[in-house]
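Class prep. Protein, please:
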Amino acid sequence: MKKFISLLCLLVLAACSNNNTPPAYDSTTPFYKYMTHLEGEKILIRGVVKTPDNKTYLLSDNEDYEFSGIDARYLQPLFQPEYMTKLLKSNRSDDKFSLTLAFDADRSNNLVKVNYDLKLPMKYLDTLRQSLKGLEQHWRIIYDDGNCEVGDFFHQEPSECKDNKPKTQIILRMKGKDNKSIIDGRIVKLNNRDEILKKSSLPMPIPTSLSNYRLKTDEEIRSEKRDEMKKSTQDGIEKAVSIITAPIWFPMLMWVGPVMGK
């Protein structure tokens, strides 16, 4: 009996020792691991402005979002006049154009992460390619609702799809890997926002979903660690019991199997 208890404790401790929780605010940790969701809301992006220092601002009714450097360049597909007017007028009302824009806002630090899906008729393929030229591929390109996914957007043509059928639509999914956005910005409020909104560069507002988050408190992090430790301990006990009692139930299982087969 003493050996049984000792082995049980050893297995439980081994299970607990493997419970390595990553640092709460490590930059390599996925966004949702260290944030607490507050609430979601629908907003309208009513204006866009680009400044001489290569910054892009998206203006909503109550606040503005600033993007600079490489992050601003990943927004370029959304502001092509060749198709944006048609897209915004028919967005989600037909199967030719569609734009789904989503923001995740870190209210603790006034930061924002962006991803979007863009669906266009195939005739805008060259325009879309030009808007992304020179950027590292952090997107998925799909022709005709999943019938063909493109690995090399700039050199692989729609005709090279395996089914060898004509393609009519292109879908761009701008989304980072493992819940890590590649389009990061700041939440700001421009002083002259009212004047900018009066001269909006958008033909129509862009419907946008906004999810608000805050950093988890130290107590929330400790509580999660305790829950993880409790679950790990329980799993360890179950594994230990299963291993120790295997000499009893495994031969019975082997014997029942052939009997049931007859």
